[in-house]
């Protein structure tokens, strides 16, 4: 078995795919009306996005009675401050709650949390 992609639901697959394409510098390899897949230029596991009409933004941090996040993405970076500035220019929002000093939690345009961090 080979994991080829992680799929994120969104109110608009194309909009969210464009955000991550710009954030990561990846290429679109498949585009349909309600489905988009991006991958790194050298290949490997990608991200796919599907339009979900009933999509609800997850709460971060979790709150009882609200939509919980089902996953989040961890993205390793060399320079946390530069990567954070880049994330903000692509449309990410810095989350109010930051649980760790060496990690920055952001929300993508659909509300999915993702973390930028410098690996040890």
UniProtKB/TrEMBL annotation:
**UniProt cross-references to SUPFAM superfamilies, sorted A to Z:** Glyoxalase/Bleomycin resistance protein/Dihydroxybiphenyl dioxygenase (SSF54593)
The superkingdom listed in its UniProt entry is Bacteria
Q: Which Gene3D superfamilies match?
A: 2,3-Dihydroxybiphenyl 1,2-Dioxygenase, domain 1
Species of origin: Kibdelosporangium philippinense
Protein name per the record: VOC family protein
InterPro entries tied to this protein: Glyas_Bleomycin-R_OHBP_Dase (IPR029068), Glyoxalase_6 (IPR041581), VOC_core (IPR037523)
Domain VOC positions: 2-119
């Amino acid at each position: 078995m080979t994991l080829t992609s992680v799929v994120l639901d969104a109110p608009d697959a194309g909009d969210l795919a464009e955000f991550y394409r710009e954030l990561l510098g990846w290429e679109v390899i498949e585009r349909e009306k309600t489905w988009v897949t991006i991958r790194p230029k050298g290949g490997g596991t990608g991200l796919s996005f599907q339009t979900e009409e009933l999509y609800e933004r997850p709460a971060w941090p979790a709150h009882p009675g609200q939509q919980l996040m089902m996953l989040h993405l961890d993205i390793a970076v060399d320079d946390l401050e530069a990567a954070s500035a880049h994330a903000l220019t692509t449309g990410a929002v810095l989350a109010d709650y930051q649980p760790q000093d060496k990690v920055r939690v952001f929300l993508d345009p659909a509300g999915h949390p993702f973390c930028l961090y410098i690996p040890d």
